[in-house]
Specification:
This is CENP-V/GFA domain-containing protein. Keywords: Lyase, Metal-binding, Zinc. Pfam families: GFA. Belongs to the Gfa family. With 138 residues, the chain is mainly β. It is built from 1 helix and 10 strands, in the order βββαβββββββ. The protein has a single domain, classed as Beta Complex (Metal Binding Protein, Guanine Nucleotide Exchange Factor, Chain A), CATH 2.170.150. The structure holds zinc ion (ZN) (2 copies). One zinc ion is lined by residues 15-17, 19-20, 81, 83-84, 86.
Length: 138
């Protein structure tokens, strides 16, 4: 019987200009859309799409290393590229997860959202495509 080898799933991503790149391993957790006022304002779009990885499973591999963080709440920090302004990450104090903007991932098409946070604040014309909201998230 052939021995099976479990290879951890490796995900890679980067900002538009390439200053920031990352590798994340493991199973992506809770892919979801968010239409909170910060996600919509920061992105200029009706929602952002996020997915979580364990913080210690994500490594910055690009020439500039970690993105620059801006706190949208005192305990929530958004990482973006200072050159091209791509939104990359969201980190909450006390959490062992780092949220990654799904569309910064090279394989973004493989992750479909399982929920939509702040769906009640979403643009009304998104209503026909809203995913279920199993629980409200920040
Ligand atoms: Zn960039
Ligand atoms: Zn949000």
């Amino acid at each position: 019987m052939a021995e099976s080898i479990v290879v951890p799933d490796l995900w890679t991503g980067h900002c538009q200009c390439g200053d920031h790149a990352y590798e994340a391993s493991g199973i992506p957790n809770d892919p979801h859309l968010c239409s909170c006022e910060h996600c919509t304002r920061l992105s200029g779009a009706p929602a952002m799409a996020w997915v979580g990885f364990h913080r210690d499973a994500l490594k910055w591999t690009g020439p500039v290393g970690e993105p620059t963080y801006f706190s949208t709440w005192p305990t929530l920090h958004r990482g973006s590229c200072q050159r091209c302004r791509t939104q990359l990450t969201s980190v909450a104090d006390g959490s062992d997860m780092i949220m990654v903007a799904i569309f910064s991932l090279s394989r973004s098409a493989e992750l479909a959202p399982v929920g939509h946070s702040y769906r009640e604040e979403a643009a009304p014309w998104m209503a026909i495509t809203l995913a279920p909201d199993p629980q409200r998230r920040t």
